[in-house]
């Protein structure tokens, strides 16, 4: 019998392929086709979900919906989307705010599609195997995107893009988005690697692709994402030091943290000196990753633009000017520093080039607080669901012949993760989950979001909800059928 739910899930898998779509016949080949493909895939997934709800015998989806909307992350993301769409409806230019334009493809209409995509993932991807497949599909798409970029760099006919050292663009058309896309891809790959059974061939495959993703990340020469990765690694290692028990793994983590601090000091030295260091040896321009200047650079123009955003916020502080309305703010509160006589100048911006200032100016204080609330709720849930003792008591237990890891709180109530085969695996996965939003937020200080970022961000939060739901409370008592031993 035809399963409408399986078809709905199929189109959710298909959404990821939108990142490969390039329509050379359109004015914006790296943008237009992507959002059209994404919207169609999401709409078809929703249609088959509704058909399953209405016509598939014996299927009651109401409990799933009730459970979903009881999740704190679903609630706060729903409030954010509501604020975003309401801001679009009440915008200075409501038409642009809701429908956007060919160049961006965002706005209220697109945000509704992101929300449907997110909600369907929460409702339909209830098994670890679903997420494993989605991560694999995402990595396949990332690999194909990289191959396209390499073909373009080699100037193959019909492929659009830049040279290998001219900031790698892949299928996204903008190296800054390729950088954060590689970060999400690294998360998917590392999660799969940590979850997989280990053998030399699998380790070789994962390790090789890891190096490819890191190499492409460096080729994008994106300083914001590079800084974000450094901050995320630093805080992630500190988190690991807190949760790991005393032993060799903890000592190695401490050594890695010291080495990272040394590398950070080295980067600071090269930034302050007149010396340059190309992180990709055959690409001299990759030295820009260690070059950060305020005056005369892109950061200076961002400061001017952020000043315009603040002035726009002061005029419309509650729900802002509306999505896709930043160009009106920029024109009204234009900083003349943008115009330099006799020099190439950027005198028109339709984004504040910072997610935070974009939401502040376009969706007002309500939209910005709702956006920040997503991350606040995420971390509240994260620390609540991955409770670890201050004295780092960890128990590795066996229940029903399945390996599980248990963290005891002072009251003897434990939290169980049903995945993971080793005593440290869950700790590394928690560190990944902890670090990714930090990396995203740091790079978001100097960049705005578009489809490749929104898609992966909503996917990540849906996955986080799945993980939080798999944590079960179990009581460890003498009468329990758990056999356990303390980890030294």
Automatic annotation (TrEMBL):
Chain ranges of the O-antigen ligase-related domain: 210-372
Protein's cellular compartments: Membrane
Recorded GO CC terms: membrane
Transmembrane segments: 12-30, 36-53, 73-92, 107-125, 134-156, 176-194, 201-219, 225-245, 252-270, 364-383, 431-448, 454-471
Pfam families: Wzy_C (PF04932)
Main location: membrane
Topology of this chain in the membrane: Multi-pass membrane protein
Keywords: Membrane, Transmembrane, Transmembrane helix
Highest taxon above the source species: Bacteria
Record protein name field: O-antigen ligase-related domain-containing protein
Protein source organism: Candidatus Jorgensenbacteria bacterium CG11_big_fil_rev_8_21_14_0_20_38_23
Organismal lineage: Bacteria, Candidatus Joergenseniibacteriota
